[in-house]
Specification:
Layout (H helix, E strand, L loop, with lengths): L1 H21 L4 H22 L4 H10 L7 H14 L6 H18 L2
Length: 109
C-alpha cells in the first residue's frame, strides 16, 4: 500500500502542475500588451514634459495606426495616464503596464 501511494503522489502532482505551465500567452496578446505599454510610456513622457491632455490628444490624432481599434485605445490609455497622479518615469510605466496586461490576459484565459 505504501509503495502504491508513493508511486501515485508524483503522478498526481505532475497532472496538476502540467496545465498550469501549459498556459502561454499568444503572440497577438503579447503584441497588444507591448503596444499598450509603449503608448502608456509615451503618454507619461508627454505628461511629465508639461504637454496638456488636449495637445496629447491632438498629437495622437495625427498618428497613423495599423489597426482600427488602436486610435481609440491610445486615446483611452493617454486619458488614464493623465488622470493618474503618478510621476513615475516612462520606463517604469511601460514595465508596470506590460506586467499588468499580461497578468490580466492570463487570468481571462
Amino acid at each position: 500500500m505504501r509503495n502504491l501511494l508513493s508511486a501515485l503522489i508524483p503522478v498526481a502532482l505532475v497532472s496538476v502542475a502540467a496545465p498550469a505551465q501549459a498556459k502561454e500567452l499568444p503572440a497577438n496578446d503579447r503584441y497588444v500588451c507591448s503596444w499598450g505599454a509603449g503608448t502608456a510610456a509615451r503618454a507619461q513622457e508627454l505628461k511629465l514634459s508639461g504637454v496638456s491632455l488636449y495637445a496629447a490628444r491632438k498629437k495622437i490624432q495625427t498618428y497613423t495606426f495599423n489597426k482600427s481599434w488602436m486610435r481609440m485605445m491610445a486615446l483611452g490609455i493617454t486619458e488614464q495616464t493623465y488622470d493618474s497622479p503618478s510621476r513615475f518615469k516612462p520606463a517604469a510605466v511601460r514595465e508596470s503596464f506590460y506586467k499588468d496586461c499580461v497578468r490580466y490576459k492570463m487570468a481571462h484565459k
